[in-house]
Amino acid sequence: MILVTGATGTIGREMVRALPAGLRVRVMTRNPAKAVELFPEAGTRAGVEVVAGDYTDPPSLDRALRGVEKAFLVTTCVDGSDDAAFVSAACGVGVRRVVKLSAAGVVDAGADDLVTRWQRANEDLLRGCGVGWTLVRPRAFMSNCLSWVGSVRGEGVVRGLYGMSPNACVDPRDVAEVAVRVLTEEGYGGRAYTLTGPEAVTAVDQTRELGRLLGIPLRFEELTPDQARAALGRRYPPPVVEALLASAERQRAGAKAQVEDTVRVLTGRPARSFRQWAQDHIGAFAPFPDGAGPCR
User: Which range is least confidently modeled, 77-86, 136-145, 166-175?
Assistant: First the structure.
C-alpha cells in the first residue's frame, strides 16, 4: 500500500495520475469529499481510496498510515509540527520508507530564510527518525504563474518582483513522475534529488511566451519590494512574506539559475520546458469575457 498526502495540491493530483495502474493507493486529505470534488480521479480510479487524515489529529494519521509500506509526504506548515506528527505516526505503524517533497534551496548555503530553515529541519527530522527516506527537492513550479491569471485576463498585465531574474523552474508533472519512480521502485532510498527545468527563465520570458500563445500583447509590470510585500501580505503571514522576499533577492543574484539533469536521468526523457507547460495550460489564461482580449 502506498500513501499520497496533499491530494488537493498540485503535486498530489499529479502523483495519483502518474502512479502505475494496479497499485493499491491511499490518498490522505483533511476533507475527502472536497478532494473528490476537485479531483474526481482520486475517487474513481480502481485501487485508489480517499481517507481523512489531519496532521493535528494523531489518531487520524494512525488510521491513514496503517498498512502503508511507503508514503509521499507534502506539508506546508512552517513551524514543523506537521512533519513531526506524520513521521512519528509513520514510525509507530511500521512504514518502510517516506519520500519527502522538500525544496532546492536547502542546498544553497546563502539561503537562511524561514521557509528554507523549515525545510532543512524537516529533512533532518526524516533522516534521523529510523524510517527509510528519499528527498525530492524541486526548484519553483512553473504552475506558480497561474497566480497571474486574473491580471492577464482582466488587464493583459503580469506583475512581479525582479522580472529579469532567472529561475530554472520545473513542470510539476516532472516532479510527480520522479516522485512516483523513487516511491514505487527500489534503489532510491537514502538519496536526495534536485529537480529543475531544462533552462532558467525569467518572469519577462514567461510573460512573452504566454502572450505569444494567447495571441495578445502582454505587458510585464515591475513591482517595487514594498509593492511586492503588500501583494504577498494578502496571501501569507508576515514571516512567510519576508522569507519569500529574501528568496526573490537570492534569485535576483542568480542563485536559482543552475540547471540539473535529474529529470532526464530518472525518467529517460528531458525535463519539460516552460513553453511546453504553457501550451498545455494556456486554457487557464483564456478565453476572455465575451471572447475579447483584455487589451481591447
Answer: 77-86
